[in-house]
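Help needed: design a sequence for this.
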């Protein structure tokens, strides 16, 4: 047994409620799974329609993993004894009605699931939970966080008070205040500490963590450099939001082959996030787990907790997560069960450097990475990035979505003294996200140094910037031809959508051009008056004015430049 198993299994099995905290990858799954089996076997047979044990986990992936560990243990049941069975209850793959049907026909005693589906399942009149013996909350602190709490209260109301309850996590202490509400009676706290001889650590001792301080536009090139040069079989890269995973996965799929080193040739990329439907989500994770090739998974915090993929030996965090505990869970996907692993986090130059000190206070041992010159790779990256963005307008739409979601993510940081919105580099990240123009968003209103009209490139003819999808392009062309026509509004063109916004801002821009024309005209008239010309020499004046306007226009319509 691992230390957490040796200390918590006897307690949990001997009718004690337990709260167990031990670092990632230390074997907590077995530490609750064995007692669940023991407690149910000791209680004797349960009747059809009754649940005897519930294990709850915050994500579908984690619930599925626990269910499969259950099955691999239950395979070893002596045939003469009660046959224990488990059932998986997660949304997205089957209906509640099907789950209930299966439960009644296969009579499992244990259910493993995510809170939402578990609640719906327990609410079915055919399912009884009054004889429940044991409840486990894996990743308990996460489950108790806002969002799940109403669901969990609903589940707890349906369970008998006479039961054993166990809370497990690598960071369970933050949930201690909630214990009474969760219904633990005189729980025993088991905290398994690790250390490097001198100091206690909150991460496995076999996990080596480094941080790099980078400018916004160096982050993705540095990621490419890292996945090109680091030694790993499988690596996980954490992005802040679903939209940023979608965006950078599309970008890297297209341009990374051009930037690969011989060391990384043949490496497969995968992407996983919470907005994928269940089918592709499961398929992607299985493919990542089962591929024999060197592979990299781009993902969000949906894959931060609990996932046990032993071959993962490198974890990269493009940005720190919005709360510090998540850092430990993300990094802990590597260095599991005594294996060696490496964690990297990219901090934005400026205020974010303080995050390293905060982690040290949180008992994370980390070092600053050596500075590496990646200027050639960066130049090559942005050349390819520019071509890719300009290749289709869809790419820019994706960039806008990813950027907006990143800004919103940044506002959610709990450590506001380090991650200050007032110091957020809107322009730097706009360029890093490949934007031609910053989107209009409330957060930008009070920001400093935003270029006029949000343009990040000197000029671009947005009217000529096409969608690859013929239907989208057709719609865009129709909008273009309608945009000046007041009738378009009457026809009900959407007002609040991003397109409506861009239409609005384009209208604003045209107004400005008109204003500028008027100004120039006035200047010309004033100048000619000074020269003694009569304002009635209108033909000549009109010609001068046209030339002036044309010159200004020419300046504005210079080739698209994309300096990043
Ligand atoms: N007694 C044991 N001996 C050897 N390996 C073990 C033992 N118990 C568990 N393991 C292995 O350790 C790995 C990590 O276990 P597990 O996923 O339960 O960790 P955890 O503590 O729940 O981590 P996390 O906090 O990240 O969820 C798994 O691959 C598991 O098979």
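Sure. Designed sequence:
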């Amino acid at each position: 047994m691992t230390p957490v198993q040796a200390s918590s299994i006897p307690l949990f099995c001997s009718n004690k409620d337990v709260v167990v905290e031990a670092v990632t990858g230390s074997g907590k799954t077995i530490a609750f799974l064995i007692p669940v089996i023991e407690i149910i076997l000791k209680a004797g047979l349960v009747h059809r329609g009754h649940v005897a044990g519930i294990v709850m986990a915050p994500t579908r992936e984690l619930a599925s993993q626990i269910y499969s560990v259950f099955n691999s243990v239950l395979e070893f049941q002596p045939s003469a004894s009660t046959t224990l069975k488990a059932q998986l209850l997660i949304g997205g793959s089957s209906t509640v009605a099907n789950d209930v049907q299966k439960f009644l026909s296969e009579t499992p005693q244990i259910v493993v699931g995510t809170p939402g589906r578990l609640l719906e399942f327990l609410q079915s009149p055919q399912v009884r939970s009054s004889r429940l013996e044991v409840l486990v909350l894996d990743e308990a602190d996460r489950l108790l966080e806002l969002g799940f709490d109403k669901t969990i209260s609903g589940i707890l109301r349906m369970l008998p008070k006479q039961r054993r309850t166990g809370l497990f996590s690598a960071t369970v202490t933050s949930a201690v205040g909630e214990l009474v509400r969760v219904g633990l009676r005189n729980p025993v706290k088991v905290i398994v500490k690790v250390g490097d001889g001198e100091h206690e650590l909150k991460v496995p001792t076999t996990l080596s963590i480094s941080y790099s301080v980078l400018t916004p536009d160096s982050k993705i090139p540095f990621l490419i450099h890292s996945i090109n040069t680091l030694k790993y079989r499988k690596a996980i890269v954490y992005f802040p939001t679903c939209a940023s995973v979608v965006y950078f996965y599309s970008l890297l799929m297209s341009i990374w082959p051009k930037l690969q080193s011989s060391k990384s040739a043949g490496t497969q990329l995968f992407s996983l996030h919470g907005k994928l439907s269940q089918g592709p989500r499961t398929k992607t994770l299985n493919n990542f787990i089962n591929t024999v090739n060197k592979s990299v998974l781009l993902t969000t915090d949906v894959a931060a907790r609990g996932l046990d993929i032993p071959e993962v030996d490198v974890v990269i965090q493009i940005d720190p997560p919005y709360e510090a505990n998540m850092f430990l869970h993300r990094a802990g996907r590597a260095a599991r069960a005594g294996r060696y692993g490496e964690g990297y986090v990219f901090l934005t130059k400026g205020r974010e450097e303080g995050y390293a000190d905060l982690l040290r206070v949180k008992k994370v041992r980390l070092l600053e990475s050596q500075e590496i010159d990646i200027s050639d790779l960066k130049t090559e990256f942005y050349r390819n990035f520019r071509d890719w963005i300009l290749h289709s307008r869809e790419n820019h739409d994706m960039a806008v979505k990813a950027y907006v979601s990143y800004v919103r993510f940044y506002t959610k940081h709990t450590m506001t003294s380090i991650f200050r919105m007032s110091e957020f580099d809107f322009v730097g990240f706009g360029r890093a996200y490949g934007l031609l123009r910053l989107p209009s968003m409330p957060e930008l209103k009070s920001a400093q140094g935003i270029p006029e009209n949000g343009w990040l490139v000197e000029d671009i003819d947005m009217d000529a910037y096409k969608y690859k999808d013929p239907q989208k392009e057709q719609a865009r062309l129709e909008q273009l031809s309608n945009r000046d026509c007041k009738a378009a509004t009457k026809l009900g063109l959407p007002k609040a959508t991003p397109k409506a916004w861009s239409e609005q801002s384009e209208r604003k821009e045209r107004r400005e051009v008109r204003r500028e024309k008027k100004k120039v005209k006035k200047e010309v008239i004033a100048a000619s008056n000074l020269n003694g010309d009569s304002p009635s020499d209108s033909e000549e004046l009109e010609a001068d004015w046209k030339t002036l306007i044309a010159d200004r226009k020419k300046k504005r319509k210079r080739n698209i430049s994309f300096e990043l």
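The longest strand covers residues 207-214.
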